Amino acid sequence: MTQQNIPIAPLTITSPEKTERFTRPILKNEIAGIHVEHVSLPATQETTDYPQEGHKAIYLFMQGKGVATAEQTRYEIVPETILLPNIAPDITIKAATDTPLHYLKISSQLTTQDQIDLSQFPQSHTQHVYYAKFTDCQAYTEKIKSPKTVSRTILPNKYIPRIAMGTVQTTGPDEVGAHKHPMLEQLFLGLANNDCVVHADDAQVGFSQYTVLHIPLGSTHSVSVEPNKTMYYVWIDFFLDKEGEEWLKTHKVIEDNK
Q1: Structural domain count of the chain
Q2: Tell me: the pLDDT tens digits for 175-216?
Q3: Domain closes at, from 112, 133, 154
Q4: How far apart are CA 222 and CA 177, in angstroms?
Q5: How far apart are the C-alpha atoms of 62 and 195, rounded to whole Å?
Q6: Neighbours of 52 (CB within 10 A)
Q7: Beta strands across the sheet bearing 34-41
Q8: Which of 115, 133, 151 is the last residue of a domain?
Q9: Does residue 12 contact residue 5 with C-beta atoms inside 8 Å?
Q10: I want to staple 244 with a disulfide (CB 3.0 to 4.6 A). Which of 5, 31, 181, 239 is the partner?
Q11: Three-state SS at 228
Q12: Rg for the chain (alpha carbons), in Å?
């Protein structure tokens, strides 16, 4: 789906009465080597995933509650949680008894260079399950954002080659200032109550909750939010090469403040 040259796809969020599990590709073939799926798991149902050779998987839980089990450890799943199985031989995800569970599964195909880089990452990043609630993640500031904007890094780099993720949260009137980054591809995932506008060069599109969009590569883009509305989304960076990760140095960590 496209609108004004900004590829965008609203997710189908089902009601609690729905009993069918579904998996739907999102923005298929938008970014080379990246496959994104929206998974809807009805209440009480469970699914088990196994690693795909030559790929790394990321799970972003958006809505609903449940439990994920990996390496014989149970992880509480609530809205706005991230989990990487890493070397776990499988991961079982079960929805709670009273609500369906909605999440994105993002699979990254590793290049030969990625495999080399992965072997050199800290073992604490690659040999254990990575799990975090967004609100517990490290806060940072950035020149293109206002002082009232809350930004967090939910997935630092050097966990999965050439990938990093974070959140942006503020209320209007506010904006993320115009900027461009030709060294990376970027997806946005709208979180609960997100209601803002994304601009890319001469195009713009309304960006609502539970929607995924692709920032056109190399475009000058910004995000604006009107008074009494909310901006709250995940940015997902896919760097073209590891040198491009220098961009992340523009994020200034807020020490001792999460």
Answers
A1: 2
A2: 999 999 999 999 999 999 999 999 999 999 999 999 999 999
A3: 133
A4: 5
A5: 16
A6: 11
A7: 22-25, 34-41, 101-109, 55-63, 81-84, 130-133
A8: 133
A9: no
A10: 239
A11: coil
A12: 18
